[in-house]
Amino acid sequence: MAEEMRVLLEYADKINPESADEYVKVGGYVGLEKARQMEINDLIQEVKSSGLRGRGGAGFNAGMKWSFVPKNAEIKYVVCNLDEGEPGTYKDRIICEKNAQALLEGMAICGRAIGSNQGYIYCRGEYPFTVKLLKNAIQSAKELGALGDFNIEVRMGAGAYVCGEETALIESIEGHRGEPRFKPPFPGVAGLWGVPTVVNNVETFACLPSILTKGSAWFAGIGAAKYPGTKIVTLTGDAVNTTFFEVPTDYILRDVIYKLGGGVKGGKKLKAVQVGGTSGSFIPEQNLDTQIDFDSMGAIGAALGSGAVLVLDETRDIVDIVTRISKFFEHESCGKCNPCREGTFRCREIMEKINAGKASQKDIDNLLLLTRVMQKAALCGLGQAAPFPIQSTIKHFAHEYARKIV
Amino acid sequence: MTNSINELEKDATAIFVIGTNTTDNHPVIGYKIRKNVRFNGAKLIVADPRRIELSNIADVDLRFRPGTDVALVNAMMNVIITEGLEDKDFIANRTENYEELVKVVEKYPPQLVAQICGVDAEDIRKAARIYATAERGSICYAMGLTQHSTGTDNVKTMCNLALLTGNLGKPGTGVNPLRGQNNVQGACDMGALPVVYPAYQAVTNAEVREKFEKFWGVPLSPNNGLTIPDVVDKAHHGEIKGLMVFGENPMVSDPDLHHVGEAMDNLELLIVQDIFLTETAMKAHVVFPGVTFAEKNGTFSNTERRVQRVRQAITPKGDAHQDWQILCDLSNRLGYPMNYSSPEDIFAEIRKVTPSYAGISYQRIEKTGIHWPCPNEEHPGTPVLHGEKFNRGLGLFHAIEFKEAYELPDAEYPLILSTGRSLFHYHTGTMTRRSSALNEFMPSNEVQVNPETAARLDIVDNEMVKLITRRGYIEVKTHVTEMVPDGVVFTFFHFSEAAANVLTQAKCLDPVAKIPEYKVSAARIEKI
Amino acid sequence: MIKLTVNGREIQVPKGTMVLDACQQAGADVPTLCYDPDLKLAGSCRMCVVEAKGRPNLMAACVSPAENGMVIETESPDVVESRKIILELLLARHKLECHTCEKDGSCKLQDYCYRYGVTDSRYAGQGAHFGMEDPNPFFKRDYDKCIICTRCVRVCDEITGAQAINVKERGHHAKIATVFDGKLDDSSCVFCGQCVMVCPVGALTSKVSAGKGKSYQTQNVLTTCTYCGTGCTFELNVKDDHVVGVTSVRESEFSPVNKGALCVKGRFGWDFIESKERLTTPLIRENGELRPASWDEALDYAANKIKAIKEKDGPDSLALFSSARATNEENYLAQKLFRAAIGTNNVDHCARL
Ligand SMILES: Cc1cc2nc3c(=O)[nH]c(=O)nc-3n(C[C@H](O)[C@H](O)[C@H](O)COP(=O)(O)O)c2cc1C
Ligand code: SF4
Ligand code: SF4
Ligand code: SF4
Ligand code: SF4
Ligand code: FES
C-alpha cells in the first residue's frame, strides 16, 4: 500500500478515536485553536483557498458555501451529513471509527467560521455503533473543553437513502417526511428550522483540521489542482482487496483497482467499474486511466460521488445489475416529484422487461427518453442521477442490451 | 364587530375568544384565527366551559363554570390593574368612569375567582398578561357569552376589558361579536327591532319619528314595541292576537317550546312566510311561500358590517313569490301602497333613511362588499370602528358585579345544561336538515356527557337517554366525550324531534337584551 | 428591478419575483399542477419546467426566483418533451374516464394532455392503485385519478388548519391518506371541501353535485352564503334553472372575507333549494287543515284578518317576527309594513337565538 497518502487516516488504529486526549497528543485541536485566533473572513478565505470541495458528491467549494451564510442571522447550524446511504460506500463510517475527533474539530471550525454554536450529526440508521462512538467522542471532547461553547448532537437517520440529500436530511431532523426541498433557498440561507445551515459531508469536515494546521497552500498542493486533497475510496465487488484506501485525488482509477486493489479476483478480466455508488455511471475498461478527481470523472460522463468503486468482472451481467439498481431507485424515490416517482417505477418496469428478454428496441428508446426527462426535470439529485447507470450502460454496453431484446 | 374578520388572520397579535366555538359555528373565522396562531405566532386565550377545537392550540385554556363570565373577566382586569398593565394614556384620553371600575374589580382577585369559576388562578393571570401586553389584542365572542340572564353584563365586561387595555380603534383589536346568522346584522340595521327604526334610530325619539313619518307619509307609534319573548307571553295571555312570522321558526328556536306552542295556538291569526312548512308554519292560518337566497336579489350584512350582494340564480320554485313582493302585496291590500320595481329600488330607499348605508349602492358593491358606516359615495367604508372617538364621545366603563345564573343545579337537577350549534347544522335545521349530505352525516341530536358524569349515571356512549329539565324532557342519544366538563351537558337545538328548547327556560331573560339563558339550565339525565 | 428575457422578450420584474410570474408577465402561459398562489410552494409536479440558458437542467418556474440576465424559453423542445413525458407518466396510472368524470372540462390533466397532444402513454403498465370509497356523504375520494400534487394536503393544513390528510408511503406508492389511512370521518377532517376546491383533477369531487352537470354546462352566479354571519361568498352553479352545486371564487375582490374557503354547510349544504318539500303554493287553514290557495285568496285572507284585529284590538295587538336570514331589503319592508301600514313597533327577529 505504498502509494496511499494518509492524512485523515494518519493515526488510524494508533489512537483511540473516542479520546480527545489522545487526539490532542497527536496534534489534534490545534487547527480549531488557530481558527479561533483568526478573523472570520480570513478563516473562510483560508478554507476557500485550500480548494477543499465537498466530499459528499456535489463537489462544492466548502469555503464558498460557508461564505453564503448571512453574517447577521442570530441562530445558525452546522450539520454533518453521515447518512452514507450509497450501497458500497462506508468511508464516512471509517473516518468516524478511526478519527472521530477530527470530524468534531472540523465541525467546530465551521461553527467558528459561520458563527454557530450548535452542530448536528445526522447518522445513518444502520450505524448504531457509530452513534455510540460519536456520543462518547463528544463527551470526551467536552470533558477536555476542546469544543469550547460549540455543542454537537447526534441524530439517528430514518433509513431512507434520499435522507442523505441535504434538504431531505434537514426535513428529517425537523421531524417531517424525508423529502427534499426545492432550492433555492439553499440551506446556507434557510435550512434547519428555517435558519442558515451549513451541511457538509463527514470527510469534508475531517479535512479541515489539517488544512488549518498545515495551511491552505499545503492542502491545495496535494492531488488534482481543481479538487485537491486526498480522497478515501472504498473498493467493492470483484477486486482482490475489497477495502478502503486514502489516496491523493490525482490518483487514477486503474491504480486504485490494480495497484491498491490487487486487480480483479480470480485473474478474470474487468468488464466495468461503477464509481460513486448506485447512481454512478458504469465506466468501461478503456476509461480506467482517469484521475479520481471530481472534474476528470465528469469529463468521461461519470461522477466521483462518494468515492465508492465497484469492480465488475467479465462474467457479470450488466443488464441484470442495472435492473437491480433500477429496483433500488424505485424503492428509494421519495415520491415527491412526478419525473422520479413515476419515472423510477417505469424504469424498473422496462428494465425488468428487457432483462426478461421481452423488450424491443422501442422499449429502450422509451427508456432513454424517460431517463433524459428525469435527469433534466426531477426535483433532487436522486431522480436526476437515477438515470446514469441506465444511460451509461446503454451507451457503453449496448451489446449486452442487444443480446436481450427481441 | 368593531373590527373586520381578516384582521384576525393578519393583524391581531393576541386573540381572546370567549363563548364562541369558532371553528364549528363560524368555521371560516375559525380557520383565520388558527392560521394566525399557527403561522404568525399570535397568542390565543380560550375561555369556554367546553374543550373546543381552538383549545388545542391555545396558550391559555380557561374551562370555566358556565355563567361565571363576569367574575372571570373581572379577575383578569384585577390582574391587569394590580400589575400596572392597563393602558394609562387610553384610559385618560378616551374613557370615563374608570374609578368605578377599579372599585368593583378590586373585589375580584384571581385566587378568589379561581374558586368561583373552577379554574387555576395562575391561568387567569397568564391570560390577563397575554391580552394586556399584546400589541394588538382582539376579543371575539358569540352566543356563549350572550345567552345568559346576565348577557348584557357579560358584553359590557368585555368592553371594559378592551377599554382598560386600549384595544380598540386599531386594526387587530376590538370587541367582536361573531353573529350567528347570515343577516342578523342587517336585520338589526334595518330596524327589525322593537325600539329602533333603521340605523338604530330610536322610535321614542320624536325628532327621528317625525323624520320617518314624513318619509313614510303616515303617523307612527311613539311607543317601544315588544320583543319576541314578550310577544310570546302576551300571546299566551291573549293580548297579542295576530302574528306574522317571516323566515323564522320560533317553534324550534325559542325557549320553553311548550310555552311557545301554547302561545301560538292562542293566536287569532298566525301568518307564516317561509320556504318550508316549518314547525311554526304547521300552526299557521295562512302560509306564504317565499324563496331561498338562490332565487332572490338583495343584500346581506355580515358580522363585520360588510354589505354584500345576494344574487338570483334561478327562478322561484312553483308558485313561490319573491319575499319583497309578498310584503308589498300585503301592504297594498292594507291600504298602504308599496310599489317597488326591484330590490335595488328598495335599497335606494334604505339609503335615504339609513345614514350608515347612504354611500353604498349596488353598483359600488358589484364586486366587493363595503363596511358600514359609509356615509357617502366617496367614502370607502369603515372596517375599524371607534378609531378617533366613540359614538358617545368617551368610552364608558361599567362597574359590573358578578351574578349567578338564574337556574343553578340542585339535588333534583344536578347537571348544567348548555345548548348550541353543530358544525353540520344551522339554526332550526329548516335548511340543513333538508340538505341531503348534512342530514345524512348528522341525522339526529345528541347530548354530550363527560365520561365521569356518564359513569356516575351508568350510561354509555350512544345510549338513548331522557334529558330532563323543569320544562320538560327530550329523548336523545349520548355522546360521551371529554369535550364537556364533568357536571355539564351540552345539546344542539337544530332538531325539532328532540328539541333542546323544550328544556330551556323563558322566565328569566337578560333584563336589557331579553336574551334567554340558553347556556345554563339545571338538568338531569335518566336512563330509558 | 431585474431584467430577464422570456421567449425573446425582455422584461423587468421586481426582485423576488418568481420565474413563473415573470413568464406570465411576458405573456407566456406556463402550465402548472402543484402550484397554488395561496399555498406554500411544493415545486413537485415539474409541469412548469422551463429552460434557462446556461443551466444543465430545466428549472421549475414556480419555485425559481428570477435572476438578472436570465434567458428563459418556456416551450423549447426540451421543455415540451419533458412536459409530454410527465403527462404520459401521470396517464400511465390514471383512471382515464373523462366521459363520466365530474371534472371533465375543468381538469388540468385533461387540458394539458390536449395542449401537448398527449393521447395515451407509452409507459402504461402495472402500478399501485388506490381506489377507495370514503363513505362520507360530501365528496368522493378517487385516488386512482390523483396526481399527488399535494394541494389538498397543503390547503387542509394551511387554510383550514385541520391537518386531516398527508402523504403516506413513498415513491410510486405515495398517496394521500389520513393518519391511519382510513375514513375521513375518523380523522380531524371537518368536510370543508377546501381540498375539493384546489384539486386540479377529478380525484376529489362533490357527491352532492355528482351527475348534475359538468362545469361547461353550468352558469355560475356569485352570491353570499345563507348560513352563519361570516358572509362568505361563492358561486352557485346553475343548470337548466336548477342549482347543481357550489364552487369557490378565490379572488379576494369577489371573495373578500373567505377567499374561496368555505365550511361544510356553505359548500355542501345547498340542495335544500331543490328540495321536494319546498313550499310552492300559498296555504290557508280550513277545518283545521292547511290547503292550497291562490295568492289573491291567501293575501286577502291575511289582509282582512289583520284589518279586523287592528280595528278590534288596536295595532299593538299585532306583531312581526322578521328574519335574520332574509335580505336587508326584505327586513326593511317587513318592519315598514308593520310600522307604517299597521302602526305598531312590535317588530323583532331572532337576533338573540
Ligand atoms: C439522493 C442523494 C443522497 C445523498 N446522500 C448523501 C450522503 O449519504 N452523504 C453525504 O454526505 N451527502 C449525500 N448527498 C449530498 C448532499 O445532498 C450534500 O450535497 C452534501 O451533504 C453536502 O456536503 P459536502 O459539500 O461536504 O459534500 C446526497 C445527495 C442526494 C441527491
Ligand atoms: S427526485 Fe425523487 S427523491 Fe428527489 S424529490 Fe423527486 S421523487 Fe423525491
Ligand atoms: S381527472 Fe381529468 S383526466 Fe382524469 S378522468 Fe377526470 S377529467 Fe379525465
Ligand atoms: S374537507 Fe377540509 S378538513 Fe377535510 S380533508 Fe379536505 S381540506 Fe381537510
Ligand atoms: S387528491 Fe387532488 S389535490 Fe390531492 S394530491 Fe391528489 S390530485 Fe392533488
Ligand atoms: S407547478 Fe411548478 S413544480 Fe408544480
Overview of this protein structure:
The complex is a heterotrimer of chains A (406), B (528) and C (353). Chain A has 406 residues and is α/β, with parallel strands linked by helices. Chain A is built from 17 helices and 11 strands. In chain A, the strands form 3 sheets. Chain A has a 5-stranded mixed sheet with strand order 8-7-11-9-10. Chain A is globular, with a radius of gyration of 21 Å. Chain A starts with 19 loop residues before the first helix and ends with a helix. Chain B is α/β, with parallel strands linked by helices. In chain B, the strands form 6 sheets. A 6-stranded mixed beta barrel of chain B has the order 16-20-17-19-18-21. Chain B has 3 domains: 172 residues, Dimethylsulfoxide Reductase, domain 2 (3-Layer(aba) Sandwich); 100 residues, Rossmann fold (3-Layer(aba) Sandwich); 113 residues, Barwin-like endoglucanases (Beta Barrel), CATH 2.40.40.20. Chain B is 31% helix and 17% strand. Chain C is an alpha+beta fold and 353 residues long. A 5-stranded mixed sheet of chain C has the order 2-1-5-3-4, with helices on both faces. Chain C has a 3-stranded antiparallel sheet with strand order 10-11-12. A two-stranded antiparallel ribbon of chain C has the order 6-9. The longest helix of chain C is centred in the C-terminal third of the chain and has 19 residues. Chains in contact: A-C, B-C. Chains B and C meet through helix 3, helix 11, helix 13, strand 9 and strand 10 of B and helix 4, strand 10, strand 11, helix 6 and strand 13 of C. The structure holds flavin mononucleotide (FMN), iron/sulfur cluster (4 copies) and FE2/S2 (inorganic) cluster. The site of flavin mononucleotide has 21 residues of chain A, from strand 4 and helix 15.
Instruction: Report, as a whole number of angstroms, the end-to-end distance of chain B.
Output: 45 Å
Estimate what percentage of residues of chain C fall within beta strands.
15-25%
Structure summary, number of beta strands of chain C: 16
Fraction of helical residues of chain C? 10-25%
Largest interface: chains, residues each: B-C, 151 and 111 residues
| Percent helix of chain B | 25-40%
Q: Write down the domain tally of chain B.
A: 3
- Architecture of the largest domain in chain B, CATH level 2? 3-Layer(aba) Sandwich
Q: Taking Cα atoms only, what radius of gyration of chain B do you get, to the nearest Å?
A: 23 Å
Identify the quaternary structure here: heterotrimer
Mean pLDDT of chain B: 95
Count of DSSP helices of chain B?
19
CATH fold-type name of the largest domain in chain B: Dimethylsulfoxide Reductase, domain 2
